[in-house]
Amino acid sequence: MKPVRSFASDNNAGVHLDIVKAVASVNQGHVVGYGDDLYTAAAVRNFKKHFGSDVEVFFVFNGTAANCLSLRTMTESYHSVICTEGAHIYTDECGAPEKFTGCKLIPIPASDGKLTVEAVSHAYHGIGDQHHAQPRVISITQSTELGTVYTPREVRDLARFAHERKMFLHMDGARIANAAVSLGLTLREATRDLGVDVLSFGGTKNGAIGAEAVVFFDKKLAQEFLYLRKQGMQLASKMRFISAQLDALLSNQLWRKNAEHSNRMAKLLEKEVRKIPQVKIVHTVEANGVFAKIPRRAIAKLQKRYFFYVWDEHHSVVRWMCSFDTTEQDVKRFANFVASAVKD
User: Fold this and answer.
1) Closest CA to 101 of 109, 90, 91
2) What is the mean pLDDT of residues 191-219?
3) What is the 8-class DSSP label of residue 186?
4) Which of 1, 178, 228, 333 sits at a 20 to 30 Å CA gap from 187?
């Protein structure tokens, strides 16, 4: 029998009980729809408590929408967005960012998943040339698609580079909670205080049912977002059930507790599989993902019991993700199974 929990993705995890309770608690009577309700107002206040009283925040259904609509607010169709070649907006959103913004995405190689000022500077060209898409946004993912985490200085340097050139810095924060706890920072310290202009805030991967937010630190960028969200089919009629999830996540440090746990489970998994000679960790484990090179012949055997993704088929690199509900027993059982599979 397959285990109840796998190591494929934190999207595959269940929902934290506190969030289930929060949704149930607002399931009473009738309230005004489309976000004009007390529960949504409370969630917005909670975001302002964490990020600053002058931010603007809007709730959406999923991360692709948060990213696409964020980028749309900062760009015109003749602009370009600089990102890593492994960025979610480039590889895993079916061209949605380019479809909805009309912009060209410029992918930059990044062996550790992180953009650098030096790398970005090579893509910053053709300024003022009518034949070239004009660079407008630098988009970074925190934590990255490879499980690494930008340091505060790295984010600040990218923000400075962008702002000096009248560009914006967007952060895909699908796992911003994991990055913040890894750095020992608050949510504000890991985003706004480093110069981020717009944040796609992720809740789903950190214990929510399905709730994301777009947080504007530059209020001018938010002026028309109400209409963009509606056109983007992301205005929930029964908004209270999304708002309740995010309000619960930002209350009583739940966002931090969940992220700390999933990060800790990833470190434990790293520790356990490092004991296996046939397994090689290929990226620094800084958040809740472990990337490992394993014998190709072992992948199919492992996947018969545990679902996970092959990240780089050519180099036999797999990705193992931990979640808020991953247990130490889950990790040790999995590591033992890996050890037996790679020996056969």
Assistant:
1) 90
2) 97
3) -
4) 228
Cβ atoms of residues 333 and 2 within 8 Å = no
Tokens linked to 308: 């996970």
pTM for the full model? 0.97
* Token digits of residue 330: 């889950």
Token pair of 309, please? Answer: 């993704």
Edge-to-edge strand ranges of the sheet holding 317-321 = 280-281, 289-293, 317-321, 309-312
The secondary structure of 197-226 as a DSSP string is SEEEEE-GGGT-SS-EEEEESSGGGGTTHH
Helix (H/G/I), strand (E/B), else coil: 309: strand
Q: Which residue has the tokens 């698609």?
A: 145
Q: What is the DSSP string of 101-170?
A: H-PEEEEE--TTS---HHHHHHH---TT-TTSPEEEEEEEESS-TTS----HHHHHHHHHHHHHTT-EEE
Residue 184's pLDDT band (cuts 50, 70, 90): very high
